[in-house]
Amino acid sequence: MSLSNVITFNSRKICVIVDDQKAVLSFPAEVVGSNEIAFLMKNCDELRLAIPWNTISKLGLNRFRFYGENFIPVDFKTNGVSAEERAWFVRNLVKGEISIDEIIYPGRIFVEEAKEGGVLERPGFGEAALDIARMLGFIPASVYSNLMTPSGEIATADYAMKFAEEHSLPVIKIKDLIFYRLKNEKLVERVVDATLPTKFYGVFKAVGYKTPIGEIIALVKGEVSEGETLVRIHSECLTGDVFHSLRCDCGDQLENALKIIDKAGKGVLIYMRGHEGRGIGL
Fold it and tell me: How much is the pTM?
């Protein structure tokens, strides 16, 4: 079953998500049941729950220490190990129906911070699982786990394809999911605009946009819809742009671009928010 068919027909089958090297099994956390959990427990390694950071904070899970890079191992206070108990815990956790006092730590369910922007922000398995749940109309949270071979090895993409065919499961490639979202979703939203008089570079029209990978500000001067137009794409660098750090020339590049646009009388500076100060680790 193709990605478009999975979305169109609201398939409630476990999905096999693959990249170039390995694969995972995934199912929306909001409606996961004992059958899906049992299938994952039989064919995969540990259970992971992919949810975005704002949900982790809302649920109060951010008070627990991360294990490794981005996992928080938790369980319900009864510490149940059956598929039914784990499915119940996962469903009610993502719905916000379990209080922090009812959670024990560490546990056997590995909560993973997945990027809220999904595969367009980071092309990982957690993000892909999150995207699929959201596209099916569920809470953006998914249970997933690494597919294993009968011999206990991490399954390859080739093994995953045969496994999916054997069990009649849909296969979704991360690269196809990225392409599908780019083709079918409105990714850039214009949210605000204002006149911006500057001290050294004249008057610009500032236009703010929201995207899955962060905020963008476009500074526009003159009539840019006609003829050739100067365009500078500048990644935010707090230390260089604001504090004039000597470790980079970002601030100089920004100032020179604005000077050139001002001298030309028209042009656009696209300012990409959310990048770090170069060479300083911020």
Answer: 0.75
Residue 210 included in any domain: yes
- CATH code: domain of residue 94: 3.90.870.10
Q: Are residues 203 and 174 in the same domain?
A: no
Those residues whose C-beta lies under 8 Å from the C-beta of residue 37, and which sit 6 or more positions away, are 47, 83, 84, 86, 87, 90, 143
Segment among 161-170, 208-217, 262-271 with least mean pLDDT: 208-217
Q: How far apart are CA 217 and CA 270, in angstroms?
A: 6
Q: How many domains does the chain have?
A: 2
What CA–CA distance (Å, rounded) separates 273 from 282?
Answer: 14
pLDDT digits (tens, 9 = 90+) for 129-171: 999 999 999 999 999 999 999 999 999 999 999 999 999 999 9
Compute CA 48 distance to the chain's CA centroid, rounded to the nearest angstrom: 16
